[in-house]
Amino acid sequence: MSTITTKDGTELYYKDWGEGPVVTFSHGWPLSADAWDGQMLFLVQNGFRVVAHDRRGHGRSSQTSAGNNMDGYADDLAAVIEALDLTGASLVGHSTGGGEVARYIGRHGTGRVAKAVLISAVPPLMLQTKANPEGLPKSVFDELRAGLFKDRSQFYKDLALMFYGANRSGAKVSQGILDQFWLWSMQSGLKNAYDSIEAFSETDFTEDLKKFDIPTLVMHGEDDQIVPVKDSGPKSAQLIPGSQEIYYPGAPHGMTATLQDKVNEDLLAFLKS
After folding, report:
1. Of 75, 76, 195, 224, which one is the catalytic site residue?
2. DSSP codes of every residue in 7-50
3. Which of 54, 117, 198, 217 might form a disulfide with 59, Cβ 3.0–4.6 angstroms?
4. Using an 8 Å Cβ cutoff, are 15 and 52 in contact?
C-alpha cells in the first residue's frame, strides 16, 4: 500500500492517480478516501492528478489513540501534501473533510494551495452556542456517541439512510450506496470515530475561514439532514472573501454519490475556471 508516516508515527494510507493539476480530497466522517472514487476517476479522465488519504483512525490508516482532532487532521493533510511535494493544489473537503481543509489553511496557509472547495462541510460551527444559536444542541451529538458505543454496526446502517436521504419519500438510493457506507464506516476505529464527533461538532472554524485568500467554492444540499445548510454553507461563504456558492434543492448530505454527475460537472467547471 502507498503510505506516509507522520511525525508522531501515524501511518496514513493515500491514493495518487493521474497527471496534471493537483486536486486533494478530504473525506467525511466516518468514511475513507474511497468515498471520493466517483470524483477522482472523473477528474483523472479530465486531465487532473488526484490525491486522497484515509484520515487517521479511518480506512487503512493507523487507528491512533491521539490526534483525533481538527489540528491533528489538518497536520496530517499537511504531511501528505509535503511528502508528495504538492504545489498549486485545489483542496476539496466533504463534511468533516471540509473542516480539515479549513483548519489546514488556518494552520498552514495557502502557499501550496490554488483553490478550495467545501462540500456539505461542517464549518463554521455545528454546535449550538450563545454566539451560534442556530446550531445543533449538544444532545444531538451525545446521542451519536451513545449510538456508536452501543451498537456501531446498526448505528451506521441507520445513519446511512439520513446521510443519503433514503428516508425521504420518493428517494431513489440504491442498496449498494447504503452498503458501501456501512463498509467504509466499519473500517474506522471505534475510538477514532467516537473522538471525531467532538472534533467535527465543537470546532469553531470562523478564524480559519477568514484566512482563505484563494478562490473558494461552497456546495451544499438544501435537504442535508446531517449538516443543516442554514448554519453552514451560507455562513462559511460570508466569511470567505469572494467565494462562490451552489445549493442543490432537495439534495442530501451524501450528494457526491446521489448527485455524482451534477457535482462532478460543477466541480470540474470551478477547477477549470
Report:
1. 224
2. TTS-EEEEEEE-SSSEEEEEPPTT--GGGGHHHHHHHHHTT-EE
3. 54
4. yes
Mean pLDDT over residues 211-220, rounded? Answer: 98
Quote the cell numbers at residue 230: 442554514
Q: Mean pLDDT of all residues in the chain?
A: 98
Which of these is catalytic: 32, 95, 185, 188?
95
3-state secondary structure of 261: helix
Closest CA to 224 of 255, 261, 185: 255
Residue recorded with cell 454496526: 153
- pLDDT of amino acid 30: 98
Per the listing, cell 454553507 goes with 233
Identify whether 174 is a catalytic site residue.
no
Residue 140, C-beta contacts closer than 8 angstroms, at least 6 positions apart: none
With cut-offs at 50, 70 and 90, classify the pLDDT of residue 111: very high
Residue among 23, 25, 24, 2 at smallest CA distance from 14? 2
Rounded to two decimals, the pTM is 0.98
Per-residue pLDDT for 64 more than 90?
yes
